[in-house]
Amino acid sequence: MKLFQTAIEPRCAYCARGRELDPGQIVCPKKGVMSAGSHCGAFRYDPLKRVPPRPAKLSTANLNEEDFKL
Length: 70
What we know:
The chain has a domain at about 1-40. The chain has about 70 residues and is mainly β. About 0% of the residues lie in helices and about 15% in strands. It has strands at about 20, 25-30, 30-35. The termini are far apart.
């Protein structure tokens, strides 16, 4: 089951092995305290830890009635 992209960039922030110590710091059982943006060879992806970016907001300032007529 693919929940997000197929090529996820590994980061300690969403590794199944790591636990959050502080915002920006992860405790890894393999490497110890790591920054959230780093990674190691023991990376295991946990989709529940990853927060996808918010979608872009639709700019409705330039839209009018004519844009929605067929």
